[in-house]
Amino acid sequence: FASPALSLSVLKPCCPTMTTDSASTVIVPETTALLRELLALRGAPRGEAIAAIKAIRVRENEAIYQHLLKNLAESTGAEVALALTGVADAIIRELAERAFIKAGAPSGWHEQVGIFATGGYGRGELNPCSDIDLLVLSRDGKTTPWLTAGNAELQASMWDVKFTVGASMRGMAELARIIDEDFVTATAVME
Question: For the chain, what is the radius of gyration of the CA atoms?
Fold first, then answer.
């Protein structure tokens, strides 16, 4: 891609039965520079950071679109979906960090809470107008003030960056009960 922050690398075949012709080569986004760019915004005031992250998202999606146009005969839907997923992952990780820091989460909050992508996004099949399905999962099931505030800030930040969000917050025991009772939810979580 022509983006200053997002570049592509070729994922070489891992199995002897795979070939390296264009039909089986998968282009994987390299997000290291993008992650550094987002990290540099961590100390910025919320409004400034959100505006910058929104601009980064627009820029990266435009780079993906331009790459698709330039390489129309070689590009695949899987390649585009994977690139969009990579950009979304980088942005959502930074938004989650900002949200939980702002909410006063303890330093080890990553060990108490997991943020899981579900649906098409979780499968790496994010399309240009797809929503972002997330599950915020609390290990002990306790709804602490920082968890509630962090989840709310994460969702608000995602909306502000112009993601369409579908998110839920659950405890482990609650999720286990729902999975036992609801086949549709169980299938969605297993994906």
Answer: 18
Contact 126, 84 (CB under 8 A): yes
Q: Under 8 Å CB-to-CB from 5, ≥6 apart: which residues?
A: 31, 33, 34, 37, 56, 59, 60
- pTM, two decimals, is 0.81
DSSP character at residue 105: -
Q: Residue 131: what residue type?
A: D
Residue 54 neighbours by CB under 8 Å, 6+ apart: 160, 161, 162
pLDDT in tens, 119-152: 889 888 898 888 999 989 898 877 889 999 999 9
Phi first, then psi, for residue 14 (nearest 5°) are -100, -10
- For the chain, the maximum distance between any two Cα atoms, rounded to a whole number of angstroms, is 53
DSSP code for 44? S
**Residue 22 predicted with pLDDT over 90:** no
Say how far apart CA 181 and CA 127 lie, in whole Å: 30
Contacts of 90 (CB under 8 A, 6+ apart): 31, 34, 35, 38
CA 89 to CA 38: how far, in whole Å?
12
